Amino acid sequence: MIKRDLGELELFSLLAIQHLGGEALGLAIRDEIQRRTGRRVSVGSGYATLGRLADKGLVRFTMLPPEPRQGGRSRRCAQLTPAGARMIRESVSSLRKMLGNLAADTGA
Amino acid sequence: MSDSAKVPRWADTLLRLAAPPEDADALLEELNDELAREISRRGERAARSWFAREVLRSLAPIFMRRVMVATHQPRRRGIMRSRFEAVRSDLSYAMRQLRRAPGFTITVLLAFALGIGANATMFGIVDELLFRPPAHVRAPNELVTLAAGTAEQGFDQRTLNYPVFAAIRAHGAGFTQIAAVAAVSVPFGRGDHAANLDGLLVSASYFPLLGVAAERGRFFREDEDVAPIGVPVAVISYAFWQRQFSGSTSALGATVQLGDRQFTVIGIAPRDFTGLGYAAPDVWLPISSGGAMQFLGKQWTTQSVVTWLRIYARMKPGVPLAAAAADAMRAAREAAPNTFFTQSGWSFQARPIMTARGEEQGASTTIATLLGAMSLLVLLIACANVANLLLARGIRRRREMALRLALGVTRRRLVEQLLTESVLLAALGGVAAIVVAHWGGALARHLLLGDLALTGSVLDPRVVAFTAFVALLVGVFTGLIPALQASRAEVFSSISASGGRAGARRSRAQSALLAVQAALSLVLLVGAGLFGRSLLAVNAQRMGVDADRVFIGSMNLRAIGRRASEADAVFIRALEQVAGAPGIASAAIAATIPFGPSYGTEVGVIGRDSVHHYTTMYNVVTPNYFRTLGTSLLGGRDFSDVDRESAPRVVVVSEMLATRAWGHANAVGRCLRIGSDSLPCATVIGVVENVRRQSIFEDSTNSVYLPLAQARGWLSQRYIVARAAGDPAAVAERVRHAMQTAAPELPFADVHLMKDQRIVRHETLPFRLGAAMLGVFGALALLLAAVGVYGVISYDVGQRTREIGVRMALGARAADVASLVMRDGLSVVAIGGVIGTGVALAGGRVLRPLLYATSPSDPIVLGGVALLLLVVATLACLLPARRAMRVDINIAIREE
Predict the structure, then answer these.
(1) How far apart are CA B490 and CA B17, in angstroms?
(2) Rounded Cα gap, residues A90 and A69, in angstroms
(3) Nearest-by-Cβ selection for B26 from A44, A69, A76
């Protein structure tokens, strides 16, 4: 059930994962988005976004072993799939095409 | 990351409830990491509060994700089915648990029934006043009423006149249909069986406008409502049909005597049809035939001075309200250029009837909303109460929980199961609440809305839906804390038998809930006390009349075609009969009465070198008027039979006018020129105290009284006033009978106590209602809180039997033990009391505009309520304390 359309937060998340070397924890992804855009993403919406990306086959999760402390739980790491990497290329290129020479005007 | 950060238990539980089970761990770990980082950045406190917001913000997307996952993936279907199975087994388990503890179950159900019931009742009333569309009316959202006004003064002119109605009907392009309505009192029958009916004069277009169909017969035709004199046909209400004709079909075609004409009944309105108001009239008559002439004379279709008709219309689709109103004003200006509300600066406002209805019930609406808030407080108390009982029960079941955890049941399942129990309890409580709302609703309506008897059932589907919603909310709310606490059971310590029993002291949550209950009851009781004090202050106020001993009698002689001179003869005869009736101390005739219509004039007082003019109210009365009303004579004398038509002109003035006109000098014997300076002197023969005219809260006004014998032509209205010697209730009917039989063929004589007059009732309503309803709610809250204190303390004593036994074995006296228990209970209540006092002081500011001569921080009320709370709490602690004193040392210690 891969859907072609991609929400803004979904695209940002994919890009953040790529910036972080192709795999990242949820917290790191949200931090990266905030660092670059100034936009605060809550745990909940970050989590839901990654879930949707996984549904679309653009990321997959791997579980890291729990930390060796009391009550330590395993963390979930999001990994870009080949489809995800392809989606980034396509989205960015269509964005470029749409912008055309607007890019200069909009300060982009 | 740091190990010191730990996601709080509440967040853990909430997230586990919201998230898909397989993702919960990862989510919590992410939150844990972030919390740790925020603590190192902002410090513990700021980070915690940031964290709480973050979790709450995240719940919605997480839960939505769960729903998505559950509904969109086929492999989940099986899990859904197993969830359903789990819910079913939870329910049957909960049922068994409740049946096993009937005392507990009944207490909880009672608390829920009262708490939710109070809310369902108030919701029903607020809903009816504000939200529910009128019955049998087609598309009520398209209906508007026209009000005239100016931008500065607001749009308060809700009654218009016939020429304007006719013009808008002919030229108002914004409406598809338009009708005019006027409420009237219609004399029905004559002599001893006479009565006054509530009538509504309507244009023939009224019923078609509303889109209602007749229950039997038909409604008016246009050719029956023709000016100036229409066809005498009447539509009667369902209730009147039942009352007068026992629901027989022979009512159609029957004739009834209304005013001075015989009307033919042509139709019966549907059962709960109330028009656009809240109560149905007895009869509907065409405007042209229903006596419009009687109050406006032959020119009723053309006169544009008196305003008396309300106008309703149905909007044409797509036309904005403002455009339709502007259009109507254009038509009105052309037809009635001389009316005050068609002058420049004035405009119409077309207001949807759904909003106009609620606003016109102003006072009732405010009070109903206030009481809605109060009933919410009662519900909170009930919730705190039930949560406490559930907590206590949870602690008792700690071993069971620990055992199940040890056997591999997850904490989540445990929480779900306990929540199922509280929701089931709340659902049962909701059913009981419906019963409470059914009985309480009738009572509350009567108290709140008085004669505005609503005809719809209290229990309509919306009230039931509301109740179900509140019950669900309350079930989750009350179950959450106890469920969390219970699921925290420490497996090892709880399973060992002694730990399970001796270690279970009252928890902090229980004490907090107890304090909350005490605080909320105190708030409600303070509210009741403040309204009570206001009511006392209002009642103690000197109005210049004894409103609760004086009867006012009136008869609409004009409506049956009697002339003014005939009317005076009838009233004088009636006065003789009333004054002679047993149980009547004195009686008089007056042209108007306090809180009735008032009439103003100019009076001139000749000073040393000029004439001073005063605007003053005036009244025309017979001797004994002042004695009858209880108005004290401050100087001079009352009117007497000496003051005949041919005798020198005399007047009595109010203290206010006497002081203004002559200062401190004696007014008696002075000259007053009434109406015009050229008229001869009227000599002041007496000064009476000031009497309230239009409002029990107004400032005193100037008044002058004229003897009836010398001022027959001044005012044409007549009232009989009569003072009861003993119990007023016993003589009301006697006064009515005496008036009614003063002459043959009289219309209904309306007799009521002055304090029951509309204005007086209306003005004292907030205080009477506030004191009564807050008193009821306060008492309810106090009772719930007392049960709560008793339950928790006596449970505590039960848990501490062994400790008490040991103390007594070591030499503690019974009194020491008792004081230990009392101190324990009272300290919690005292803390709650202090918090409640703070809340009451802060919240008092909201009440200030509703109070009269009472400060929101009235020390007597605050002190009295605090004392009451303490006394009740002491009583609630006494029983457990007594039980503690009787602990048998041997049994207590041997239990181990």
Answers:
(1) 21
(2) 43
(3) A76
**CB-based burial of residue B72 (10 Å sphere; 0-12 exposed, 13-18 middle, 19+ buried)?**
exposed
Which residues from chain A sit within 8 angstroms of residue B37, using beta carbons?
A: 27
pLDDT at position A105 is 57
- Pair B573, B742: CB distance under 8 Å: yes
CA angle B27/B33/B35 to nearest 5° reads 100
CA-derived radius of gyration, chain A: 15
Nearest to B560 by CA among B233, B184, B190: B190
Query: Hunting for tokens 């005063």 — which residue is that?
Result: B614
Cis peptide before B228 (omega within 30 of 0): yes
* Both tokens assigned to B510: 């229980």
Whether B65 sits inside 8 A of A27 (CB atoms) is no
Question: For residue B399, which of B336, B518, B493, B315 has the smallest C-alpha distance?
Answer: B493
Name the residue with higher pLDDT: B777 or B3. Answer: B777
Nearest 5°: CA angle at B252, between B246 and B255? 90
- Comparing CA positions, the residue from B139, B119, B638, B58 lying closest to residue B383 is B119
Residue B128 has pLDDT above 60, yes or no: yes
pLDDT tens sequence across B555-585: 877 766 677 778 888 899 999 999 888 888 9
Extract the tokens encoding B395: 């602690």
Phi, psi of B665 (to 5 degrees): -65, 155
pLDDT number for residue B264: 93
The percentage of chain B sitting over the pLDDT mark of 70, rounded to a whole number, equals: 87
Which residues of chain A are within 8 Å of residue B30 when distances are taken between CB atoms? 25-27, 43, 47, 75-76
pLDDT of residue B210: 93
Instruction: Tokens 């009583």: give the residue.
Output: B875
What is the distance in angstroms between the CA of the first residue and the CA of the last residue of chain B? 47
Q: Which chain B residues are Cβ-neighbours of A67 within 8 angstroms?
A: 1
Instruction: Identify the band that residue B491 occupies on the pLDDT scale cut at 50, 70 and 90.
Output: low
Report yes or no: B40 at the A interface, CB cutoff 8 Å. no
User: What is the rounded CA–CA span in Å between residue B809 and residue B889?
Assistant: 6
Q: Which runs of E-coded beta strand occur in B500-590?
A: 550-555, 584-590
At a CB cut-off of 8 Å and minimum separation 6, what does B468 contact? B427, B430
Is residue B523 pLDDT above 90, yes or no? no
**Which long-range contacts link B823-826 to residues 24+ away (Cβ below 8 Å)?**
B824/B793, B824/B796, B825/B789, B825/B792, B825/B793, B825/B873, B825/B876, B825/B877, B825/B880, B826/B870, B826/B873, B826/B874, B826/B877
The tokens describing B376, both together, are: 């919410």
Buried b (16+ CB within 10 A) or exposed e, B851-865: bbebebebeebbebb
Residues in chain A: 108
Residue A5 DSSP one-character state: -
Instruction: Please give the share of chain B, as a percent, with pLDDT higher than 90.
Output: 14
* Closest CA in chain A for residue B28: A73
* Closest CA relative to residue B142, chosen from B318, B263, B392, B300: B318
Q: Vertex B455, ends B454 and B461: CA angle to 5°?
A: 95
User: Coil, helix or strand for B724?
Assistant: strand
- Euclidean distance between CA atoms B529 and B779, whole angstroms: 11
Q: Beta strand pairing status for B195-202 and B283-286? A: parallel
Q: pLDDT digits over B288-307, tens only?
A: 876 655 555 667 788 776 77
Among the partner-chain residues A44, A67, A73, the one whose CB lies closest to the CB of B28 is A73
* Residues 6 or more apart whose Cβ sits within 8 Å of residue B158: B145, B147, B310
Element spanning A62, H or E: strand A59-64
Query: Backbone phi, then psi, for A78, in 5-degree steps?
Result: -95, 135
CB neighbours of B488 closer than 8 A, spacing ≥ 6? B9
- All residues of chain A having their beta carbon less than 8 Å from the beta carbon of residue B65 are 47-48, 51
What is the pLDDT of chain B when averaged over all its residues? 81
Cβ partners under 8 Å of residue B601, min gap 6 = B615, B616, B618, B674, B675, B704
* Predicted TM-score (pTM) of this structure: 0.58
ipTM at complex level: 0.86
